Amino acid sequence: MPIGSCDIGLIGLDVMGRNLVLNMERNGFRVAGFNRTTSKMEEFIAGAAKGKNVEGYPELKDFVQALKKPRRVFMMVKAGEPVDDFIQKLLPLIEKGDIIIDGGNSYYKDTERRSVYLAEKGFNYIGTGVSGGEEGALWGPSIMPGGPKEAYDALAPILTKIAAKVDDGPCVTYIGPRSAGHYVKMVHNGIEYGDMELISETYDIMKRVLGLTAEEMHDTFAEWNEGELKSYLIEITRDIFAKKDEDTGKPLVEVVLDKAGQKGTGKWTAQDALDVGAPDPTMDSAVQARIISSFKDERVKASQILRGPKKVFKGDKKRFINDLRGALYASKICSYAQGMKMLALASAEYKYELNLKEIARIWKGGCIIRAVFLDKIRQAYGRDAKLMNLLVDKDFKSAVQKRQAGWRRVIIKAVDMGIPVLGMSASLAYYDAYRSETLPANLIQAQRDYFGAHTYERIDKQGIFHSQWK
User: CA distances (Å), 30 to each of 10, 20, 34, 257, 435, in order?
Assistant: First the structure.
């Protein structure tokens, strides 16, 4: 292709990058591709991109020259040092006003640093969360771009075309300045961790308390996916239970080792929740559960040493499954309430000016946490843009109250039978703490004042006090 003929260029042609290129090309854009390993680029151009408006370049200089001005360079490379390396390689080749887009799972503080650095040099930097996995990248992901508004406007014609589409528009919106896009993607992933943990605990209860087979769980999740729990994660869980292992004939999930991996985004969410003062027990418990799962060898040994209750479920299975559905839904509400509250607090702390209604809207399609449930969140913030917590919205308050008794029965039964429910119990504890007019923090303040003279406030008069407790 001649110089300046491509609408956008993409660096990093692994699966996500390749699929985004094909998505862009399918939507009418000419795309330049570059990969550090030239053979991977050549394989893509000769294969999936053959005959399409896609051109591969073995040299970064030629890749940059192929782009229309202002140049739009979309990077899909591994977070961390590789992003910084490519930025340094690009700087001598691009011009002021050009736009660099980081579509990887970068830590928001790295994006903040890069945004300031590149702005000082006259370049635009868009930290962009992209969610949806391989399929989403190809057919339409949820996209969360943050950076200079004028740079987003120059990029919007492409992003709105390649994003997932829902009933009220494309699943992309301007998130906010600097690192806002990657921050929102980080919290999205924290919510995703919570969702996955709650679903896995539901599976554990079905299996160990009720003794359901994989086929029965498939049927249950298929039914649930037709109602209030309809979502991508419920859908794929349904499919997982139907998959048989070719070697053993067993359900494939039963031969998967119970050690959950993580790439760090859930941990980042839990860590930053502490920084902005946002309670996130459900998301945090999901991270902790993955960490505990990694101690597989120790858990095997401990299972031979430590004992728990040995009981058999004797209740009404059908009623309990209905309770379990309600417990999963109520716990999910608490998890999202924590995530949205964290976004609200971070918006004030970091001056992002986040639109929570719009964020809920663009999560309705394309992304991993997409669910019909998100439209209710959009509606809640439509009723009150400054809603202090999802739990106090009329619809969510009603939903939790209707399920509260069953939610408690499920957790009591799990505890009684020795089944760990870190996520569900954390969600219920969050609900109970949030609805409590008084908490035992008064004793904590008294203790702090006793041993460290940290002072305290009183409920009956204004001021700061210190007492000699002994």
Answer: 11, 12, 14, 43, 54
